[in-house]
Amino acid sequence: MIMKDQTVTMQAKIYVYDLNNLARENGFKANEGWEVSRATNEEKKELEKKYQLTISAKVQPEILAELFITVKSQLILSKNLMAGDKKTEMNFVASNDQQYLVAFNPNRLKA
After folding, report:
1. If DSSP codes are grouped into helix, strand and coil, which group holds residue 81?
2. What are phi and psi of 72, to 5 degrees?
3. How far apart are CA 7 and CA 89, in angstroms?
């Protein structure tokens, strides 16, 4: 779990670093990238069942929104973010049930 005393910026850098490593290890093509979403425990499990590659982090609710925005910004700068769809953008609406930051590659579905 990402703790409150650890800075959001530092945790975002670590999360993006892990995403970039996983992308390299799995041979992402130039047109592939990550979708980032805030999720409840059930939504997280659903994404993990649907997609081959996922990275999730349990985050305290009071810093989840800030971490989400920071990670998305860093991925945009590194050009590793897929063009967002409406579902992801609607995820900006805060929910107390959301406690995970989940990244997945929408091009890599499980068979």
Report:
1. strand
2. -60, -40
3. 24
